[in-house]
What does this fold into?
Amino acid sequence: MTYGNTMTARAFNFHGIGQPGPGIPEDERPYWISTTAFETFLDIFTSYRDRRPIVITFDDGNLSDIEIAAPLLAKYRLDARFFVLTGRLEQPGYLSRGNVRDLRDMGFKIGSHGIDHVDWAQQDTLGLHYELLRSRMVLEELLGQPVTEAAIPFGRYRRRVLKGLHTYGYRAAWCSDGSATALEGFLRPRLSIRDDTLPEMIMRELDSGDRAWRRWKQKLSMTRKSLL
It folds into this structure.
């Protein structure tokens, strides 16, 4: 398992934009941010993109992905990856199958976030097979193209989860171990944006250098999880 040798990029993960609807679970609501806050972050990313590679991702497949996030990303000429929960497709407040194709047609990358938004590290063999393989099959049938990236729910993983992702053909797995990421590695960290994330915090992340102690600390955390 390689993490890559350089951590030059910074990756940031979003969930919902705007006002969460009644069907959004309570524990997911702190990860929703206002449209104004989202535009503030996009302004920051735009101002830094000539200085540092920036990766933007979205988890869960909320309807705000297509209604709010995608048009604003297009306005700012920024790319993004959308990781979809296939078990929530067509449900109120979530993407439809047509919405997923629309995101693909806008040039965004589509990946899997599993099916039922469960902790993959707690699944047995059959449960992990269902979450990793079935979700990928649904998306590939929907899009008519390979799906090679996944976002790990809750950022929780262990060796058998990473092995399963490899076995089922994923080439990259996005976790939640900080913003510094190596885009050539399999396990790719990112920082999740919450409703209490301040613009100053993001600018500090973008300004922070790729110091040896930072890379060592992050890699140690990732290695501990992957050996469990």
Remarks:
- The two ends are 14 Å apart (CA to CA).
- The longest strand covers residues 54-60.
